[in-house]
Task: structure prediction
Amino acid sequence: MVEEEDLKQWRDAGHVARRTLEGIKGEIVAGKAWIDVIDSAERFIRRHGGQPAFPVTISVNDMAAHYTTNTDLIPPEGMEGEMVFDNGDLVKLDVGVHIKGALADNALTVEVGNGGLHSDQIKAAEEARDAAIEKMHPGTPWHEIGAAAQQVASDAGFEPIRNLCGHRMERWNLHTGLSVPMYACGSNNPGFGGGPEVGGIYAIEPFNTTGEEGMIENVPPLGSSNILRVTGNVKIRKALTKGKLKPLGATMARYIEERYNTLPFAERWAYPLLAKPFPEEEDATLRKKWEALVKKLTSIRFLEVYAALRDVDGGIVGQFEHTVYVTEGGPEVLTVE
Result:
C-alpha cells in the first residue's frame, strides 16, 4: 500500500517512463538495429533522473514480451536475419523506471514505416488498456476489468492473450504475486479474487494477437530473454560458508546484488563485471566463466532467469501499458508526461 506522502517518487518515475517511450518511439525505423533503440532508451532514462527498473525490451511481430539483446547480439531462437527493424514490423517497446525503488512500467506498440498494416490492432490494444483502466475503481471485481479489456479486442477482431496479465507493484518489487486479468476470466475464476485496493499500484497491460489461441509460450532455451533477477532468498555469506559458492562467485553475487537489488537486470549489464577480475582473458574463455557463474547462481536459487515470450501459433502481438495508482475516487495514471 502506497501512502500519499510517498507518491512523489512514484509519480516522478512514471513521468520519466512515459517521456522515455515518447522520446524514443521515433527511433524505431527501418534499418535501425534493436540494440541501438534499447541503448538509447536506457540512456534516456538515466539522463532524466531515473534508473531502468528492468532492461528495456523490444518484441517484434510474434514476440510478445521479455526480450532484450545480449552482449554477443545473438538473436532469439527461430529468428532469421539480423536484429534490425523492417518496414511493416509490429514492435512493442516496454520501458520500466525506478527512483529509489519506486516503480513505473509502461509500453506501446508501433508499426515500422507507418504503412497502416497494423493500425486496427494498435488502436485495439491501446483502447483495451484504457477500457481496463476506466474500471480500476476500489471494489470493482477483477473479472470485470479483464472483461472490459477483452471486449475491445474481440470487437476489433483480435484475440486477447490470456496467459499474460497485469500485475501489482510495490517498492523494489515489480511483481508482488497479484495478477490482473486482461481477458474475461469469469466471476468464479479462483486465480482472480478481489479487486483493486485503495493505495495499490498496478501495471495494466492487455496484449492482443492475430493468432487463434490467444496464448504465449516460452522461447527456448531457458534464459532466452537475456534477463535475470536476484531472488532475494539466498544470503551470500551463508552460501559461502556452506561451500555453495567459491570466493569469486560470492564476489560476483555481491556486485550484482548491490547494483540491481531484486529488480530484473540484463546480461549485457552484468557480464562486463566479470572482466574486472580477468582483464586479460579472451572473450571465449570469459563467456564460459559467465555461463558457469550463472548456472551456479541459478542452481542455488540466488538468481532466476527469464524466457522470452512469443505467440504459440505465430500470431502478431500488440500491447499497450500504463501504471495506475488507485485512489478512493478511482484510477490515477502515473505514466504520463
Notes: The helical segments are 7-24, 34-47, 119-134, 142-155, 236-241, 247-260, 267-270, 283-299. The chain has eight helices and 18 strands. The first strand starts at residue 51 and ends at 52.
